[in-house]
Design goal:
It is globular and about 85 Å long. A hairpin with a 5-residue loop joins strand 20 and strand 21. The mean pLDDT is 94. It has 692 residues and is α+β, with helices and mostly antiparallel strands. Helix 1 runs antiparallel to helix 2, helix 12 packs across helix 13 and helix 15 runs parallel beside helix 17. The N and C termini lie far apart (55 Å). It has three domains: 141 residues, no CATH class; 221 residues, no CATH class; 260 residues, no CATH class.
């Protein structure tokens, strides 16, 4: 599992390793700085020793576990508080100016353990040399026994900025190649060649292996070949059907990127073989390791449950230490060049096949004033960066030709009923989609009669919103809502549309919802002409903190987002599972969006593909694919897309009414008091009635 390194890299690696050993023996810096460099040098020294041993011989399971314990020591919750990885502690010891940036740099250096596990001593060497440069800079700012903090701060700032500008070339290129090039097969080899009956292989990812990873692996190893193959078939068949129902030619594609939580290999291995039968080679790239790669956001790629969620939250904005126009310009140049050099594989890329997980333990983040924050200028730059990046990617990966699929399973941390919930989730993922298709068509037939939809919350839910619907010029051939069954979004169960923004007004509220890696309490959005004009939640004591949480993680730093989707989820079986096992707040968007009406802020479901005709099973064309923002793509593409889309679901028990209002003023109900009332949908109410 190692890569061949040239002699020059190994010589640099050895020299840096030897120099690191000397730092803890030197006391030429003020006590705080000495302790910082000692801690980081000890860490990187441990990584370098681990890397050398792995190159010489295979490690036993006990050795792998011991290395993980030692190299995640400061990141684990019981040691994090007094580590320089903790920005609170770092600022307390080093001061406000030096503490934050040095803590952020240290966090990125923890990627070295993963690289050493992969045999990438070249990347480990970059981090060791960076620490040595920083140490040398610090010692050069000693004037006798006095430390020139201002001079050190200036030197440090430029040194960090130079590091990320210089090496964005390495990491951006590798990200692109790992996505579209099947020859980059390091992680795929772990999945396909390891002995999955033993736990040793889990540690070969170089990521934190905890109870969730071990528990998933152990549970799947108990299942029969038929059960594992059925799970893989559901996953890959959904992907295939996604191409079929949208009229896209899968035979033109050769590459599929597979995303999954470590521990799912028994299913993923079978899925890889299924994809090969479809003519697709699998790529696998790791979740973001560095701040420049988006570490701290939603888990993507091959990922694990982090060793310390607060630490990840503390460092989610670390890139703002160096994030400026020069860095963004350089990163975009490299991104474009990387795709140009990989344009053949990018053109053959079919899209991602994603396995999500849910059921992490409850987590209420603490906002630390010492953690790195973004400036208003950096927020504006991030929006432009996101847009420009999307334009580059879409130039080489044509959205109208690709598809995807997403499926989800619970983690052992969901509680004592993990195995029961897992079985129930498997059943959810294989519900009879034809039965749902017929009932959903009944709902669409009613919705297509209206000009507006009206949604009202029940009890303490403050939702009261009117959604304008796309006009139909020929109702015999056109429809507003897509009849979505179990293909790209597994499990089955929703009808959705792109609303007309003008005339869409009101309040959306939900008592609790899990989005990304965070739970939101009393999440509220106010819309005027389909655009967010106000928002809030009750996660924190101060309104400023609450708004910042939403601004960063739902609005993605946009001052405003439109309503990109209005949908009605029909999977009452999933809703029942959430209630019975008391896991409603833990369900991922993928499942939660099927358990009630949901509204998405951001782009429409058809972003970048609005000109591609889409048809329901009844043959009608779905004409509600655009809104007044996406139409700008024809004149000013920079104003067409926001490059985000977040679904927010109101559960049935918080719902008083969904109705459509016709041109002549009739009110046609779809759901009343949390129950479906459209004739022909009675079966959807059975799981709800079983609850009561």
């Amino acid at each position: 599992m190692t890569l061949t390194l040239d002699e020059a890299i190994l010589e640099r690696f050895d020299l840096a390793s030897e120099r690191l050993l000397e730092i803890p023996e030197e006391h030429s810096l003020p006590e705080g700085l000495f302790l910082y460099f000692k801690e980081v040098a000890d860490y990187l020294g441990g990584v370098s020793y681990f890397g050398k041993i792995r190159r010489q011989r295979p490690l036993t399971l006990e050795e792998k576990k011991k290395c993980q314990e030692e190299l995640f020591y400061h990141l684990k919750e019981d040691h994090y508080e007094t580590s320089f990885l903790n920005p609170d502690y770092s600022v307390e010891v080093l001061g406000e100016k030096l503490g934050g940036p040095l803590s952020a740099m240290y966090m990125d250096m923890t990627a070295s353990y993963t690289w050493a596990t992969w045999g990438r001593l070249d990347l480990v060497t970059l981090m060791m040399e960076q620490l040595l440069l920083m140490y040398s800079m610090a010692t050069q700012n000693m004037m006798g026994e006095t430390f020139d903090e201002e001079g050190a701060l200036l030197d440090l700032d430029e040194m960090i900025r130079s590091f990320y500008r210089d090496y964005t070339d390495v990491f951006v290129r590798e990200d692109v190649e790992n996505l579209v090039d099947p020859q980059k097969d390091l992680l795929r080899k772990i999945v396909m060649e390891s002995d999955l009956t033993k736990e040793d292989y889990l540690y070969d990812y170089g990521m934190w292996i905890g109870e969730n990873e071990l528990g998933l692996h152990r549970y799947l190893m108990q299942l029969s070949e038929e059960e594992l193959q059925s799970m893989a078939d559901t996953y890959t068949e959904g992907y295939r059907i996604g191409f079929e129902v949208t009229g896209k030619d899968l035979s033109k594609k050769k590459v599929v990127s597979i995303e999954f939580h470590v521990g799912m290999e028994a299913v993923i291995r079978r899925a890889v073989k299924n994809f090969e039968k479809l003519g697709l080679e699998a790529t696998m790239k790791a979740d973001a390791l560095l701040s420049m790669q988006g570490r701290g956001g939603a888990s993507r790629g091959v990922y694990v449950t982090t060793a310390n969620r607060q630490a990840l939250y503390d460092h989610k904005a670390d890139k703002n230490v160096y994030y400026d126009n020069a860095f963004v310009k350089r990163r975009l140049e490299v991104l474009k060049d990387a795709y140009e050099k990989n344009k053949v594989n990018a053109g053959l890329y079919a899209g991602p096949a994603v396995t999500e997980v849910f059921g992490e333990a409850d987590f209420e983040p603490v906002n630390k004033k010492e953690a790195i924050k973004s400036t208003t200028k950096q927020d504006e730059l991030a929006v432009k960066d996101r847009r420009d990046s999307a334009e580059i990617v879409n130039t080489y990966i044509h959205q109208e030709e690709r598809s995807f699929t997403i499926i989800a399973y619970p983690l052992p941390s969901i509680g004592k009923d993990f195995e029961k919930i897992f079985c129930e989730t498997v059943k959810l993922n294989t519900l009879d989609y034809k039965k749902y298709q017929k009932m959903q068509q009944k709902i669409i037939d009613v919705l297509d009669q209206g000009e507006r939809a009206h949604v009202v919350g029940a009890g303490d839910n403050k939702t009261d919103i009117t959604v304008c619907l796309h006009p139909l010029t020929d109702p015999t051939k056109q429809t507003r809502f897509e009849n979505c069954v179990a293909d790209v979004n597994i499990p089955v169960g929703e009808v959705f549309t792109s609303p007309v923004l003008e005339g869409t007004n009101g309040v959306l509220h939900v008592s609790q919802v899990f989005l990304g890696n965070l739970a939101y309490k009393d999440l509220t959005f106010t819309f005027e002409d389909g655009c967010v004009v106000d928002y809030n939640c009750s996660n924190f004591a101060s309104e400023k903190e609450n708004k910042k949480l939403i601004f960063d993680n739902i609005l993605y730093k946009h001052k405003m987002l439109p309503l990109g989707e209005f949908a009605i989820g029909t999977n009452t079986t999933a809703y029942k599972m959430g209630i019975e096992y008391k896991i409603q707040s833990k369900l991922p968007i993928l499942i939660a969006e099927k358990t009630g009406p949901h509204f998405a802020v951001g782009d429409t479901c058809y972003s970048y593909c609005e000109d591609t005709a889409v048809f329901n099973p009844d043959g009608k064309e779905i004409v509600a694919r655009d809104n007044s923002f996406s139409l700008n793509r024809k004149s000013d593409p920079s104003k067409a897309y926001f490059n985000c889309h977040t679904d927010i679901t109101i559960p049935y028990n918080e719902l008083a009414l969904i109705e459509v209002i016709t041109k002549d003023g009739k009110h046609l109900p779809v759901i009343r008091d949390g129950k479906f009332v459209v004739p022909g949908t009675e079966e959807l109410n059975k799981p709800l009635e079983e609850l009561t």
